[in-house]
Structures are given as structure tokens and as C-alpha cells.
Amino acid sequence: MQMDFHYHATYCAAYLAGYSHEESLDIAYSAQFVDHCSRTLLAKIKGPGEAATTQLQLEMMDARTDPLGLQDITRIWSSFHFLPRDLHAVKPGCNKYYLQKYRLICGPNSDLVVKTVELAKGRPLQSVGIAMHVLADTWAHSYFAGTPSLVINNTNYEFYELFPDGDGYSEKRITFRHKTSVPDDMENSIYTNSLYQRSENTIMNLGHGRAGHLPDYSYARYRYLPAWGEYEEIVKDNPSDYMKAFTQMIEAMKYIRGDIPAFEKETYDTEAVQPWKDRIKEILEKRQLIACDDWKAFGEELSGKPMTDYAIDTYFDEYTGCPKEEKENTFLGKFIHGAIAHKGMVIEEIFKSGNMLAGFAKPQIKQEAEK
Q1: I need a labelling partner for 277 at 20 to 30 A (CA). Which of 9, 73, 130, 156 fits?
Q2: What are the start-end ranges of the H helices in 258-360?
């Protein structure tokens, strides 16, 4: 997902869940900051590298792909962007190494997403934002894994975009290119994806790189053959999935606030969005590469207050300008603690399942998760 959903739509969901305007902004900032909190950024503000929630392209280019390097990549991407759906999935006829990768495939309504939401309860708003980023990405990034893998994440030329046409859909073959400097061409179904590489563990085969940004566009509907699917076709309906993500975030945040007693899988607060269902659907289905303006306008209508634009450095000075012993009480200090706690929980769950692809949590990370 992109800023339009992680920041603006998350603000809307938080407000509908009962948070104030100011609280909703804090949650939205934290959700979006997950896509920016790299080791490079943390080094700039003198924060702990263990709190990294993403990796920059330049960092990825220098990343090691030996077992330890792959564990480091997997810890970040499986924790924050491709939360595994079933750590105990069964797939007959495959070796243990393949099965470990197969079990990291992302999807919604997992035991891990329940643990993610439960971990955020009773913690600062920054942890709520982190949890909402992770939850939302389980819908957008379904069927891909947060570990480099050709045999899991690759796709082939059988990739078609679907367009509503009467009671069904017409389709158009998608053309992929590798020019990252050129915007995706929606009108002609030309999209940028990662370059095909035969190496199993190249970063080109991380996540949904082989499908480009199609999973991140709320309007997109498409069908394709995943490498892991044994020629069984996947049909992805992003507008429907993004609506479920939005209503599930509301449900999750009502639980975190204490308004409902439990957060359960496959629960969606459709009642909260009913007065605006058509408006939200219109935003989700509108063919545009970024929907920030539409979500922002909707958010401001909901709260009646201006929504602050996201600025990555909003809290840098507060964090860097205070004494070391006070940093944990700053906005970014609370985000860092929340990120470390969430990462520790996910790594520990992967490790307990017998899967070593994420390694094991360092003592500091485990301690944060257990607090």
C-alpha cells in the first residue's frame, strides 16, 4: 500500500473508530512512518538500528544474501509488510527449505494479525499505527512473501488486468517494464516490475516486486499465476480487499480502545462505514496512481478539521534535541519501542514454528515484545 491508504485512509479509519482528530493524526503518521523508518534514517537521528521497519533501495543493493543477510531481510519485511498467514501450512511433496518459505506467504485473517492487534492494546498510539500498517498490508500483499524467493514470489507473462464490464469483466494483458523513472501507464496497462533474475535469493524476488505496484493500487483488479501456485490462477480484487482492510482496521481499533471485548479474525465493522460506503467505494475504484487528495478530503469531512500533510521529519528535532534518558518518551521514542516489540513478537512466532528463515530475536527485541 501507499501513503494514500497508510496515512490518509488510516486517519479516516481511526476517526471512525472513535479516536479524536489529534489521536487519529498520530496513528496515521505512525502507520506511514513504517514505510520510512530505515537504518539510514535511524542512523541520522541516532536511533537504534534494531527498530528498522523498512529498507531503502540503496540498503537493499548492499544487503547480504547469505543465510544471516537473508534472515535480516526477512525479519523486516515479514514483520511489517508481509505478515505470514499460516506458519504451519501443509504442502505435500516439497522439501523443508521450500516449505519454510511457503509458510511465510502473506495473507489476511491470520493468528499473527490477531497477535499484532492484541500487542498494540494498552500501548501508545504509535503502536496502534504500526499495527494498522501491518494489518492493511496483509490485504494488499496477499500471496507474496517477505523473503527473497524466486520459487515463491515470481510471476510469468500470464498477467491480465480486469475491467468491470456489465455483469462480468473484460481483460487486457499487462505489459511489464523495468524503468523505475517512468510512471506506470494505467491507460495502456503498462506497469513497472523488478527485473527477472534466476537466482533464488536475489532481492529482485522479494515480496511483490515481480508484480510491480499493482498490489498497492486500490483500483486494480488482475489475474496471474504465482510461482508457488502449481498453475492455479489467482484473481485479485483490490477494491474489495481494501474495503475489508478499512473496515477491519476500524474493528481492530475499537478493540484497542476497549470499546469491544475481543478482536477476532474475519470481523469487519461495516456498520461504521455504512453512511459513507458509496463514497469510500468511489475512492477505492477510481483509476489513479495515488489517492491522497480524495482520502484527505473525506477525512476532513469526517472530522471537520484540516488534516496535516505527512512530513517525514515532523518529530526529528524533538527526538534528537532531548537528553538520552528522555528519548523514550518522545514521539519517535515510542514508535521505536513499538517497532522493536512488534518485530520481536513476529520473529519469535516464526522461530517457534520451527522456521529459521527469520532467525531468532535478540534479547533486547524479545524483552520489548514481552513488556
Answers
A1: 130
A2: 270-273, 277-285, 292-303, 316-320, 331-352
C-alpha cell at 99: 516449505
C-alpha neighbours within 13 Å on the C-beta side of residue 47: 31
Q: Write down the domain spans for the chain.
A: 3-148+242-370, 150-237
Q: Which residues of the chain have pLDDT under 70?
A: 362-371
What is the predicted pLDDT for the residue at 61? Answer: 84
Q: Please give the pLDDT value at position 363.
A: 62
The pairing of beta strand 168-173 with beta strand 234-237: unpaired
Q: How far apart are CA 65 and CA 77, in angstroms?
A: 14
What DSSP designation does 216 have? G
For helices 67-80 and 125-140, the axis angle rounded to 10 degrees is 100
Using CA atoms, how far residue 317 sits from 34, 164, 322, in Å, is: 19, 48, 8
DSSP readout, 87-135?
TT---TT--HHHHHHHTTBB-SS-HHHHHHHHHHTTS-HHHHHHHHHHH
**Amino acid (1-letter code) at residue 133:** H
Output the pLDDT for position 367: 59
CA 233 to chain CA centroid, Å, is 23
Q: What is the rounded CA–CA span in Å between residue 235 and residue 250?
A: 26
